[in-house]
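Consider the tokenized backbone below.
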């Protein structure tokens, strides 16, 4: 076989390959060994599935329903390219009695569309919107494995780890944010054995690339109404996008705009002084000078006074995270959270907002108990020493490495000559 990511080489007999794969699957589930001719990508996936505790007779759990699912989908970046997916794949799916499916970066199915009878059959194995099809949840499958390995993949018949999925064949390709490279999810075509053809893999890969191209046309950080936008998470100096300009602000100007965006009705000079300066002896003239310089940077018309306020709504990445959290869309809230708010800032009001935002998000992650989401936080620079999250992760996914990391953190916290790290910081 020339391409290890394609399920069947040209000329292979699908029926014979199915028989061989069934025997190989039984060998693996009974003895833990993977015989030939199982592809390397499938063998690796089977091993990951077994380590994750997936049972061959298991099924997918439905995690999002009704209003939660609606809010989750509405906030997800791939919602912007669903019309494109339908245009390129919808007719192919319906005419071929296949399904078009789109999942997020953690394998949750957000959309499943296609031929009505195929939808009914897929529903019997919970291949439905809101169900979690991550590899760690239901084993080897095209959308789950595509997001696990970060590249297009086909899964044919008994290559699926869970037995009730083995009558199906699917091909999926990951979709990335074209600006940051962050994995957004995957687009998938699911149906019968005919999808094992190499063309189906090339098809979903081309669709994924088209989606990334369309996403690239969206202005970074641009609010829906076309107004100015502020990016302040994960950076010491915020970036303002306004009137086609991209302005990297000073640290103090970043703090001021974060606070004015937070309080659209405005703040008095005294309120801004208290919010910005730890030293209560800072004279008002210092603040007025900063505001005068900021007005020059912004240009006319954006910064008003008496009280100090923004003359136009300013969308911020902080507000995006807060809205998604309020809607219960924890995964997309985490996707929008690119790091702590202005991490070098010591302005009292910014510090409070930084902690409030991070604590709200991590509390939602812990309450959700989703191992993939917890792992994303725990392995980020700001989560490496987050004891509460590591405890939740070790409980949700008790691997040796997770337990070892938790034990090391707890030992460090308990050391008599060590420093006591506040939990969650």
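A designed sequence for it:
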């Amino acid at each position: 076989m020339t391409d290890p990511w394609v399920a069947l080489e040209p000329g292979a007999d699908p029926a014979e390959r199915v028989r061989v794969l069934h025997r190989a699957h039984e060998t693996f589930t009974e003895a833990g060994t993977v015989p030939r001719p199982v592809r390397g990508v499938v063998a690796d996936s089977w091993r990951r599935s077994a380590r994750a505790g997936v049972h061959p007779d298991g099924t997918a759990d439905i995690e999002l329903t009704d209003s939660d699912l609606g809010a989750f989908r509405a906030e997800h970046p791939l919602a912007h390219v669903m019309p494109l997916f339908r245009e390129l794949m919808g007719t192919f799916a319906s005419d071929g009695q296949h399904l078009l499916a789109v999942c997020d970066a953690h394998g949750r199915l957000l959309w499943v569309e296609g031929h009505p009878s195929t939808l009914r059959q897929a529903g019997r194995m919970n291949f439905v919107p809101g169900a979690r099809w991550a590899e760690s949840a239901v084993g080897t499958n095209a959308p789950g494995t595509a997001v696990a390995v970060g590249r297009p993949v086909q899964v044919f018949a008994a290559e699926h780890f869970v037995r009730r999925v083995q009558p199906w064949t699917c091909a999926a390709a990951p979709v990335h944010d074209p600006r940051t490279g962050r994995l957004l999810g995957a687009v998938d075509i699911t149906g019968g054995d005919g999808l094992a053809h190499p063309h189906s893999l090339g098809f979903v890969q081309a669709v994924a690339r088209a989606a990334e191209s369309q996403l690239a046309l969206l202005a970074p950080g641009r609010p829906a109404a076309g107004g100015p936008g502020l990016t302040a998470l994960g950076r010491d100096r915020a970036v303002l996008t306004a009137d086609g300009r991209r302005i990297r602000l000073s640290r103090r100007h970043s703090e001021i705009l974060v606070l004015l965006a937070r309080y659209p009705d405005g703040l008095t000079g005294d309120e801004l002084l208290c919010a910005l300066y730890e030293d209560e002896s800072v004279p008002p003239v210092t603040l007025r000078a900063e505001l005068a310089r900021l007005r020059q940077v912004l240009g006319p018309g954006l910064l008003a006074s008496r009280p100090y306020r923004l003359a136009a709504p300013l969308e911020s990445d902080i507000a995006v995270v807060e809205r998604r959290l309020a809607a219960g869309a924890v995964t997309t809230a985490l996707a929008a959270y690119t790091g702590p708010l202005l991490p070098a800032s010591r302005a009292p009001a910014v510090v409070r907002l930084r902690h409030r935002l991070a604590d709200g998000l991590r509390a939602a992650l812990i309450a959700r108990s989703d191992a993939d989401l917890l792992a994303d936080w725990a392995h980020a620079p700001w989560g490496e020493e987050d004891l509460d999250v590591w405890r939740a992760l070790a409980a949700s996914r008790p691997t040796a490495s997770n337990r070892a990391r938790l034990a090391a953190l707890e030992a460090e916290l308990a050391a008599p000559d060590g420093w006591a790290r506040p939990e969650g910081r």
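Residues 348-368 form the longest helix (21 residues).
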